[in-house]
Amino acid sequence: MQFSCDPDQEGDELPQYEHIYQNDFSYRKHKKQKEEDISICECKFDFGDPDSACGERCLNVITNTECTPGYCPCGVYCKNQKYQKCDYAKTKLVKCEGRGWGLVALEEIKEGQFIIEYCGEVISWKEAKRRAQTYETHGVKDAYIISLNASEAIDATKKGSLARFINHSCKPNCETRKWNVLGEVRVGIFAKESISPRTELAYDYNFEWYGGAKVRCLCGAVSCSGFLGAKSRGFQEDTYVWEDGDDRYSVDKIPVYDSAEDELTSEPTKNVESNTDGEKDISTALIVQQQDSTPMEEDVVTEAVKTEAPEEDMKLLSQDSQQVSSQKTEIISHVRGDSFKVKSVPVPRKRGRPPSSGKAKTVAQKHVDIANVVQLLASKEAQDEILKYEEVKKEATEELSSLYDEIRPAIEEHERDSQDSVATSVAEKWIQASCYKLKAEFDLYSCVIKNIACTPIKPQDNTKNKPVEAGYDDQSKTLE
Ligand SMILES: C[S@@+](CC[C@H](N)C(=O)[O-])C[C@H]1O[C@@H](n2cnc3c(N)ncnc32)[C@H](O)[C@@H]1O
């Protein structure tokens, strides 16, 4: 990165905002983590091996979930409570040429290390868009709103942690990651590579832009895309750009001041440590959408078996993924009381999910016409056996469909509350019914194969289609 931040340079006017160490929940209550939803890892602390206390191999660390105090088997030695303990890397706020303030590392930071939490006010997307417009109207030049999940955003404009000062780069040394902490999703800045002291920290904003200023990117990377948020939808749709003497901006149309939206007139309640001056101009009605929040790609099934509730299956399985991040895998992890929890595990594309080529994946599935198979069999016993299994499969399918209707309210509620995982009881029911259906399908198809292979086939009516010499050929055609 070719940044021009001088770590030795002391800032003049320091920005005004309220410094917070945890997200602010004025808009809604902080979720209360249910005991049944607490993930308990299987780590055992060994005094001779410090890594044994919730290190890289900890089940919770692997699933981006912090251990809950009082429940972790490693007790006070647990190392997986970094967000809760504000276990941040040492950083310093500095002035960066042309880009306002920025954050530099003050110590060696290891690749993958948690650097700092991005804290701010947790608000709905609707509110985020409203605020973005208000900020724009008031000439606010720096954007501090980032995506939290499908329905909420974090606004660090007026309240936030030092992470709000981390600038954008098209070739960043940091990235954002989402973690589950005591039942809430939280956003952290992590090192993408090892970072030496005095280096500026930066991540790729990948702006979700809702109008206002187009900011010229001054990251200096060879691969620089020119503007902040150049890939965003808003950027494509709108045209105007700021120009106020600062070469980051240029203007096509001047925003009109509307006193009805005068939200910024109230002074921030507290200044950051060395604040001296409240003149910091905050800008652009941009909303930052994190890189990892693109919609989940769903596999497209072509030539599919007409299973009775495939969409519901897909819907339920993708709920969590869409809530927290697209690059996720649903996994079932062990939780307290021998129950299970369906969780979303953020897996950055490059590390987990194979990169999408943008093409739909084709999963070929074949239809087995049971009635036709039964007709082919000469043995009444074999026919009955297959029909019996088909009946069980129908029941299992119906049960899964009706279960979906039953749990739909819970799923919808979970969506409304932007929960990141449905309740354990709901997940358990769904898993049970899905397994039952899969087993019924398996039993049916194994019974079909067994009977086709082992029982006599009815002689074919020669007047109809061409004669069948070998029963096996014909049956395998049926199964094709
Ligand atoms: C989250 S704030 C970062 C802190 C900000 N520099 C400050 O002084 O408060 C994002 C804003 O910083 C500025 N910024 C960040 N990265 C930039 C870059 N690469 N080029 C130009 N401006 C940048 C833009 O004004 C952007 O809206």
TrEMBL record:
Matching entries from PROSITE patterns are given as: AWS (PS51215), POST_SET (PS50868), SET (PS50280)
Give the span(s) annotated as Disordered.
345-364, 457-480
Q: Name one GO molecular function term.
A: histone methyltransferase activity
| Coiled-coil regions listed | 379-406
Localization recorded for this chain is: Chromosome; Nucleus
What's a single GO CC term here?
chromosome
UniProt cross-references to InterPro entries, sorted A to Z: AWS_dom, Post-SET_dom, SET2_Histone-Lys_MeTrsfase, SET_dom, SET_dom_sf
What Pfam families would the database entry show? AWS (PF17907), SET (PF00856)
Q: Where is the Post-SET domain?
A: 213-229
SUPFAM superfamilies from the UniProt entry: SET domain
Keyword Nucleus recorded: yes
User: Major place of localization?
Assistant: nucleus
Keywords, A to Z? Chromosome, Coiled coil, Methyltransferase, Nucleus, S-adenosyl-L-methionine, Transferase
AWS domain boundaries = 36-87
- Where does the record place the SET domain? 89-206
> What's any GO biological process attached to this entry?
methylation
Protein name in the entry: Histone-lysine N-methyltransferase
Where does this protein come from, organism-wise?
Microthlaspi erraticum
Q: What is the lineage of its organism?
A: Eukaryota, Viridiplantae, Streptophyta, Embryophyta, Tracheophyta
